[in-house]
Write a structure and sequence with these properties.
By secondary structure, the chain is an alpha+beta fold. The chain has one domain (9-124). Helices cover 22% and strands 32% of the residues. The protein has three helices and seven strands; from the N terminus they run βααβαβββββ. It has helices at 22-28, 30-34, 47-62, and strands spanning 9-14, 35-37, 77-85, 88-92, 98-102, 111-116, 119-124. The chain has a five-stranded antiparallel β-sheet. Strands 6-7 form a two-stranded antiparallel ribbon. A hairpin with a 2-residue loop joins β3 and β4. The two termini are 17 Å apart.
Length: 125
């Protein structure tokens, strides 16, 4: 367990919980695709609007209009989870309506790739 302070953030939940392309997830970075950093200096009631704006920025970054709104390796976003604290999160639909309140934060896994001697080792955690 870490002593670092919890930083509020959002997680994009998508149609695929496991990446359809591990290589793509490793190259782009799972956190770059799925995590949205929030401005914790703003009131909590702005977090969902920040998350929706962050998702729109991801659509623009990944040019998902060409991919029918899908994010690399994970597909179409289906919900957003705002992690307010390590023990408090809320799942929202993509319009910002509450789906459910959670008593723990939702975190993402990670993927990495190592190239050695012409071989690629992929790992998802």
């Amino acid at each position: 367990m870490t002593d670092a302070p919890f930083i509020p953030h959002a997680i994009v939940e998508t149609e695929h919980r496991i990446p359809t392309s591990i290589m793509q997830a490793a190259i782009y970075g799972v956190a770059n695709i799925m995590r949205i950093d929030l401005d914790g200096s703003q009131p909590e009631d702005t977090f969902i609007e920040q998350a929706i704006a962050g998702l729109q920025a991801k659509h623009e970054r990944w040019r998902t209009d060409r991919c029918h709104g899908r994010l690399p390796a994970f597909g179409k976003p289906v919900s957003l989870v705002v992690n307010y604290a390590a023990d408090r999160a809320t799942r929202y639909d993509l319009d910002g309506n509450v789906i459910e309140h959670l008593n723990q934060s939702v975190e993402i896994g990670s993927a990495s790739a190592t190239v050695a001697r012409g071989k690629v080792k992929l790992e998802v955690r």
